[in-house]
């Protein structure tokens, strides 16, 4: 079974004719020698064939379904498939989700998504998170709607831990390398718990107004649950894979 035309149209439309990773245009008018050159590729998140990147056995309908496809430029397609441990299923779904939100926000003329790519980074470990929160003076946090009590508690607990480390970050850094390392481990442990519950954290840092004409570094975090991830998992024969199995 091939990817259905309707699925392909949806993918191109919702991607806004841009690569989900680098956001370059995928039908380019600027390549003189090839008018209207098509540089976009419909990539499978979970590979079609055994031995392919991120392969898991999937029903053909799911494998070629919308949730398992991501639109990329040729360069990023090559890179994504060459580095399946960096570009895990979760990472790619987060990139796609974020990109589609970015496209939708631009088409709506809204400014809910920062254009500077503030949130483009996937936060997987304390090594990713510490540089964002160390010395930050404010927080801007986004999270999914309609959370179960259990999930809401987990996210609250995570944000509390992150802001606690932020508050003492200058002391921790003054204490030296080992203290920073311990802090990063604590953050990694919490991020792993969130990943196990199906959450992906995207983050960034930017200068923002803090009141009274003062600006300072603000941590921007968004917790997302990539659309369709659970449905995809459930369809895998033999049960759901833990996020850790993918890395
Ligand atoms: Zn690209």
Characterise the protein shown here:
The structure is a single chain. By secondary structure, the chain is an alpha+beta fold. The chain folds into two domains: 5-110, no CATH class; 121-224, no CATH class. The chain contains nine helices and eight strands. The strands form three sheets. It has a four-stranded mixed beta sheet with strand order 5-7-8-6. It has a two-stranded antiparallel sheet with strand order 1-2. The chain has a two-stranded antiparallel ribbon with strand order 3-4. Helix 5 crosses helix 8 and helix 7 (169-175) crosses helix 8. The chain binds zinc ion. Residues 19, 21-22, 24, 72-73, 75-76 line the site of zinc ion.
Overall structural domain count: 2
The DSSP helix count reads: 9
Amino- and carboxy-terminal Cα gap: 28 Å
Average pLDDT for all residues = 81
Cα gyration radius (Å): 20 Å
Molecules bound to protein: zinc ion
Number of strands: 8
Strand percent estimate? 15-25%
**H/E element sequence:** HEEEHEHHEHEHHHEEH
Strand order of the largest sheet: 5-7-8-6
Helical coverage, percent range: 40-55%
**Biggest beta sheet attributes:** 4 strands, mixed
What overall geometry do the principal axes of the alpha carbons give? Answer: globular
Counting helices, strands and paired strands, the structural category is alpha+beta
Quaternary: single chain
Q: Poorly predicted ranges (pLDDT <50, ≥5 residues)?
A: 109-117, 228-247
